[in-house]
User: Fold these one by one.
Assistant:
Number 1:
Amino acid sequence: MASDLVTKAKEAFIDDHFELALHLYSQAIQLNPKHAELYADRAQANIKLNNLTEAVADANKAIELDPSMSKAYLRKATACMKLEEYQTAKSALETGAALAPAESRFSKLIKECEERIAEETGDLSMQMPEALAKNDVPAKEIELDKDQPNLEIEAAPPKPAYRHEFYQKPEEVVVTIFAKGIPHDCVKVDYGEQTLSVAINAPGKEAYHFQPRLFAKIIPEKCRYDVLSTKVEIRLAKSEPIHWTSLEFSREVAITQRVNVSSVSASQRPSYPSSKPQRVDWDKIEAQVKEEEKDEKLDGDAALNKFFRDIYKDADEDTRRAMQKSFVESNGTVLSTNWKEVGAKKVEGSPPDGMEMKKWEY
């Protein structure tokens, strides 16, 4: 039963029916919750649907069940890169590369993570010696000009303690506050009809308060939040399925468009407005995922079923009739394309070696 669900899930994924694939993998996991491969495959479906935190959770479960599965580390890294958690992604990639040294995708993605990390940190350790060398002026050569007026240097506004961003689905808005190592009891989140209040008071760290008036109304009793190791994730339930053009309310926004939930394609990528300029090349990551899909060829029953579908699709009418008649009359044990042979008589079942046909009574 589980193998049939997996076969159908793989076929749905190849046909870009990611919602169906996700549903089928979930059913298979209920039947076989200790199968690491199922979690890794469901993680890929979640990535295609931009369910990134769910994808990370599935990849982590696959790693827990089978720490030697390199594919699970690749899934985790892909989702973390889309979440801009490059350190976590790099760590997963390095472990996966050690397990599969011949796989070139790991080294390419590790290099990309290192570039992103360098951009975030500004690579100060390499820049400071060069800057000091250019500006090394002996103290004796520096003289104060008493005729110069005193200049007041305006201090730059302090940066917020944590960075935040959001993305949305037709029914909810997900706000992510990137705060590492914060205990759960140091985070307090309150919801109003159109307000959000987040307070983080961790020992030894600057207090953080985020209190925006939201773009539209929410349903407070359906909202929830999770404190994870690297962030606080807040899920806001929309009161109406409209598209939020920003997280915070603005009087300049005059018109909002209602989203038709039934028409939203599963393959559509949600936008990720953020307090930090986006530098992620989504097209590049998408191309890498597509390349990965090409590498994962069908095998076993899935490959055989696709082969038979291709034959049926291109066959003439007699061949199709022969295939249908032989398959039905033999209870799925015979598949013939010769209408002259099967059209004149009933096709008897032919079970595999070591098995026997039985008639089920209802």
Note: The first strand starts at residue 163 and ends at 168.
Number 2:
Amino acid sequence: MNLSKISKHRCLLQFRIHINPQETNLPKIPFGPFNLFIQRRWKKPANTAQTRLESRTIDSKLNRLTTYLKKLKTILKIYELMSNRKRGPFVSLQLMSRWTNIVGLNVGMGEFVHKHPHVFDVFTHPVNRNLCCRISGKFKGLVSEEERLVKDCELECAKRVKRLLMMSKNGRLHVHALRLIRRELGLPEDFRESVLGKYKEDFRLVDLEIVELVDKDENFGVAEVEKWREKEYREKWLSEFETKFAFPINFPTGFKIERGFREKLKNWKMLPYLKPYEGNEVVQVGACGGKNRYEKRAVAMIHELLSLTVEKMVEVERLAHFKKDFGMEVNVRELLLKNPGIFYISTKGSTHTVILREAYSKGCLIEPNPIYVVRRKMLDLVLLGCRNTRELQAEEEIKNGSDSLIRKAFAGNTTVGEWVVPISESFDNVNDHDDPAEIIDASEEFDGC
């Protein structure tokens, strides 16, 4: 009886220790082979979208490019805020300091402006003696040139919108989704009136926020990836079976290829799928290979959308607005991470940007277009930073001379209200000599591209 009671107490003690070992006052027993009943279970490492995003192979050149483009977008926001003011051609730095949170700067506005003398002209107000700022003539000329090119390319913009409508599930798109990627598609600011309202034989506005395709064009039924396949078939003498459903895949430097990855990639390349312009039918996920075919069609649609953009990149959050219209019931971020040889997600800045990897080489677009060339000139002007040039030195000498003339005018019998016209004319004369074509190339930032 005593032995049975002892064995019962021992089993009860082991059960309590296994359930909650902290409730007992017994000393902590180290892990070993004879006390397996109290061993702890090790948790598996988390495999979430965030961990996969952090563990991806980094492309330093594309990351650097998105960092520079974020700075350019910040300057364009400042230019827009300055242009909306109607009180004069310049703004005081004290007022501009209130825009720090609006444009998303992590540094002071004064420090940011002084770091880019080729973009901002900073001078001392002759009356109030405070620092004022205005956009330089070179940068303003490049912005005007971009607006002119966008206006001249209205027909190309209409073709891009028509292609997007042909890819949609029912020939309709939300205008809000187009508005979010307006700059990426090269559309004018008033594209609803200048493009959608002008080409009525192609588009019809169902209501205020939905545009519908009137008639399809068979000439637009060939995707960019299909043109690449034809080129590969002709130039590299590959078999039609290998190139019929393939995609251009370029892995970044340092990408780790695991065991069995090449075989899976080869099978995925040969997997048939519905092409973006072929039809609006949705592949059944439960069918044989349905899930892979469905995801491959979504990859093809995102690939074609990125190919239609000016710089071959779009923010992931804005890309998700096309999911419903394109019939892509997938997690866009997960899909992009599954295909690192086709897409690259850059996390630089406050947003995530997806870039079409095949379109870039050493941080530069392989096949540039006129709008991209102008934006690249803007970026080169921003990347000059505080580097002084002969043109900038000449401008500073002229400004100093104009300031001395204004002081002499104030020393005489000039009224207080007459200073506005001469100082504005002096700065206009300075910036009239700025030629956007004379911008010094700062392409050494992109490895000599």
Note: Residues 12-24, 283-288, 405-445 have pLDDT under 50 and may be disordered.
Number 3:
Amino acid sequence: MDAILGAANDNKRPDVSRLYDGWTKRWVQSKHQSDYGKFRLDSGKFYQDKERDKGLQTTEDAKFYALSARFKPFSNENETLVVQFSVKHEQGIDCGGGYVKLFPATLNQEDMHSESQYYIMFGPDICGFGNNRLQVILYHRGKYHENNKTLKCRINKDTHLYTLILRPNATYEVKIDNEKVTGGELEADWDFLPPKKIKDPYARKPRKWDERLQIEDPEDKKPEDWQDSEFIPDPDAKKPDDWNEAMDGVWEGPLIPNVKYKGEWKPRIIDNPNYQGEWIHPEIDNPKYRPDPTICHYHNISVLGLDLWQVKSGSIFDNFLLTNDEEFAEEVGNMTWGLRKDVEQQWRELYEEMEKQKEAEEAKKKREKQRAKQEDIWGLDEEDEEENEEDAEEEAEERPKQEGSGERASVDQKEAHFEQKDEL
């Protein structure tokens, strides 16, 4: 496993080929609860080099995980901090974390848990279809702050490289697979501080301020002959002679459609000559705002941890790197993730194709087996049907004979009856 944990203020470049065979000694399992999921060192199903591509793999479904490694404490004050690692969700993760956390030196590793104070949380966080978020949570003045942007992570089964860069000029950059996906100013993209400007609490929109872009023409008048009644009383209708208003009320004739009806009249619309534009609330300097040049300056960074929950296990974490050198981080990414990605992808695609073929063959065999079973059943039914058809044919042949003999017997009886009558 290429577990490179270099201090951010250490100018020495670690040997990328170094493998930590004694990872169980370097990484500490938390004992905060007894049922944490277990990690193992594994390269998974798809890799370029089976030994070199081994990483820390989650092995138990529906488990919390709490594993951490300690290194010499350092600070990123006046220094660039690069947090980089790779993760492969070859199990097809449906809900779970794939991020890392940076902790202060005060962390008790054997008691690390989800409520333990951390400085940085960075990496994929997936739960449900479409909810694939790339978390960048930073600690400042006793609170955790999420990035205001919606960042998406990669959710396929390949290994992906995640890189977070915090610079001393209070800017940042996030990269996936050594390509920038976002960046900017820390103060702009996190709500670390109160806003620089606020609306003037004493400002009020003038009562006569006219924001109407268009108005009805006050000089436009409805024509005298404009008919806006859709129905009118029938002029030819007559009140019945026997109509009694005392009994029947006031007589009202029936209504008929107005042939001169033009619809509801409305004055034409014109540009408002008094339009002043939208009133903008004036802003003033926020008296509560104070610039903070120490945003995301952390001291005694000393532990990198995997504090996760996963429904479906199988994620492989590898290539952990902390450094102050952006170019070096990119170089390490190319020498680790970069060397394996194409071979791993090709192998995965080949494996999946073979699995599809295997499933198709098994499905075919299952269908053939079911078909053979059904044919056996159908074959018995056909024999029964043939016997029934033969019986039906025999019955059909015998029926005319029986009917004929019956008719003949009836005729003989009639003839005997007449002969007996003649004798009488």
Note: The mean pLDDT is 85.
